[in-house]
Amino acid sequence: MQADNQVIFATAVFLITYAFIVSEKIHRAVAAFCGAALVILAGIVSEEAAVHYVDFNTIGLLIGMMIIVGITRQTGVFEFLAIKAARGAKGEPVRIMASLALITAVLSALLDNVTTVLLIVPVTFAIARQLQVNVIPYLIVEIMASNIGGTATLIGDPPNIMIGSATHLGFMDFIINLTPVVVVIYVVTIFLLKLIYSKQLATRPELMNNIMAMDENAEIKDHVLLKKCLTVLGITITGFVLHQFVHLESSVIALTGAALLLLVTRMDPEHAFQAVEWPVIFFFIGLFVVVGALEEVGVIEAIASFALEVTGGELLPAGLLILWLSAIASAFVDNIPFVATMIPLIQDMGRLGGISDLNFLWWSLSLGACLGGNGTIIGASANVVVIGMAEKRGVPITFMAFFKVAFPLMLMSIVIAMLYLMAWYVLHSTVAMLATLAVGILLALVLGRSGKGKEPAVHKTGN
């Protein structure tokens, strides 16, 4: 196949695959796998290159955390936390909403947002049933909290896992650079959601007493297993914090944690591996190959060159362009394939445009893709999971019902993120400028003293 035809074919396969993923006419894992098979069969990507394009660090991290969370789920600790939060809120519906949102955000940062909503949503239905209130406000708040919380850490949201793997940014890099703005966005978003839904969540005192009568301790099914799971989970998270210093990939930490938990619990591996969402894993594998085909034929490089022309190769305009593009795009298409496409594009922008500090662009991509997922019900995997669980329980949430609440709040969060990135850029630029100025002054002083020291010798030679 000639070069021009390869470009056309690879682009067509990518767009068709993307269309099937968005439309959900067929399962997204099947769509991605078929796209990968086509580009390999057409000779655009060789078998060896296909393996190279698959990011096994992302795959390993996902599998390891899925095993750990799957085993931990059996202890009932997540139900325990949800009921304890509801009782801590004294059964008051709006306070319960805020409490569940906080648990969802924290767990989404420490585990991952898809797993978190799978654990929290069933308990939410039980609580709403006891209070006899509309469950939809709770579900919308939990969707938004999961995506906001997942933005804060390396392991919280699949886009961050992919960015961290591609750039070798560590767990603490995400904590230091993203958590401050995520906390601000979370507080503002939950405050506004409480104002929006406060009138819809009125209930009677006797129903609030039903919540207070619930026993969270009864939810713990296996105390011995719980201790083992929390110990291994603590060791694993500590490993994430230290992985840059011990020079281990995050996937190694996650898989080691999973292996340790399997060892100490002596759980049947066949049963434990059922917790791994294999369709998600194979979706990632296929997607990496399809995007790799675009990289192979030069499409990614061409788009990167165009982006550099538009922004003039300046860091701040490039970062803000990526932020808003990621946010709007991720609101209407799943953020995982979008980020998979953007990662090599940003890498090429750095290579072609000579942008030395790409971290600013990575933070822009992370904030845009993760927060943008809050814009619509199809914007992120967690959204789709919650909507599906609600439909199975006879509580459909329409696109527009979610959109009219979530999209304006998503735009607000992106404005806050934009202000944060601008401040981040100015601060780092100022620090760099002051450092350069200090070095210049130091060199001037050194050279000045050196020059003064040489004056007598020059004078003596002149005589």
From TrEMBL:
GO terms for molecular function: arsenite transmembrane transporter activity. The chain crosses the membrane at residues 6-22, 29-46, 58-82, 94-111, 174-197, 276-294, 315-340, 360-387, 399-420, 426-447. Its main location: membrane. Residues 18-368 form the Citrate transporter-like domain. It is found in: Cell membrane. It holds the Pfam family CitMHS. Keywords: Cell membrane, Membrane, Transmembrane, Transmembrane helix, Transport. One of its GO terms (cellular component) is plasma membrane. It is a multi-pass membrane protein. CDD domains: P_permease (cd01116). Belongs to the CitM (TC 2.A.11) transporter family. PANTHER family: P PROTEIN. This is Putative tyrosine transporter P-protein (TC 2.A.45.2.1). It comes from Desulfallas thermosapovorans DSM 6562.
